[in-house]
Amino acid sequence: MPIPGYNGIDNSGILLSSSNLTAISLSSDKSTVSVGPGNRWRDVYSYLKQSDLAAVGGRVGHVGVPGLLLGGGISFYSSQRGFASDNVVKYQCVLSSGLVVEATATNAYSDLFWALRGGGNSFCIVTRFDLKTVPGSKVWVGVAQYDQSQAKGYLDGVYNFGKYGAPADPKAAIIPTILTFPSSNLTIYAAAKFYDSQTNSPHAFENFTAPKLTPVADSYAYQPLSDYIAATDALQPLGLRQEFRTLSSIVNRDSVQLVHDTFISGVNTKLSTVANLQASITFQPVTKDFLSQSAKTGGNPQGVDVSKAPFFWMVENWTWTQPSDDAAVHAAADEITAALNGMLQAHGYDAKYLYMNDAGKGQPVFQSYPAANLVKLKAIRFKYDPLRIFTNLLVGGWKVADA
């Protein structure tokens, strides 16, 4: 994550790179794939494509495997298979003592296994993830783009998919992203659409296709997931300055409109003079099916209340180019996020959970987990790392001990 102090940048301590741990191998029955932490998701999908398989992993190719999985991980397959971490069957770990162990849901390290499914990097160094594979490397996937005149219909579609579409068809997933460019007075509405079947659904995305919405461009097609990932990586260039924030809400049409309006107006009011600024907000639909998968495979620390689903887990993202603009963007990100959270709370639309992998510096991620789960995480951390090696020396990320 692009967070000074959280990712090993501008901090003291040890930066431990797993870049060379890039082994990937399939089990003999092809039901699991063993993945080294030096891999990115594009590497995993490209490897599995050769065997007509996929995995419950990241939706952006250059995202690293360990970061996504230790924070839980949202996937295109999540409504069918839960968090990406719910699909880990074994972790190979190096403990602070130097002991190498394997943690599963049923062995002597089952508490560590549970903690690693969303508890971050406070417990050990994971040197291998064994993941369930997904049959079929080809899916229906692609990105549609809409112009500003279609904003109302687009937001209607976002709400309807979150409320009705995603719960009705777990094979369908969507990433609705609104991008705004203040210096150009331009806002673009995009939707990455995904359908896990050889046969396309005529209904899953009817609110994002003609006659309801006519995209100005649409790459949606039946293709290998690895090919889609490779093509879309180019749309998200590395090397830019970045800021993230996360928030969550229940699914409500008024809340979608309020979030949209508050975010767009906040960015344009506060950051119109920042060179090359691009800001976006993404609504990520989260269904009961998504959240129900964890209990089937050992549970996880996030403990999101399934009864209140569906949710939107939202991510705000700002990119810019000049270091001289850092302070202004950081301040605006805090102010806009505070305004959004205040508005959601005032109308009763807010939801507690904060998704670690989209969070920004200072956001209380672990405090959004159930209190009992946080107590349990702290006890597990103390058990496996009593000297706080992975808290005090390995400084990146959100630390259980500090929550």
TrEMBL record:
Top-level taxon in the UniProt lineage: Eukaryota
UniProt keywords, alphabetically: FAD, Flavoprotein, Oxidoreductase
PROSITE patterns in UniProt: FAD_PCMH
Annotated InterPro entries: FAD-bd_PCMH (IPR016166), FAD-bd_PCMH-like_sf (IPR036318), FAD-bd_PCMH_sub2 (IPR016169), FAD-linked_Oxidoreductase (IPR050416), Oxid_FAD_bind_N (IPR006094)
Domain FAD-binding PCMH-type: 1-136
GO molecular function: FAD binding; oxidoreductase activity
Similarity comment: Belongs to the oxygen-dependent FAD-linked oxidoreductase family.
Protein name, UniProt field: FAD-binding PCMH-type domain-containing protein
Organism (species): Neocucurbitaria cava
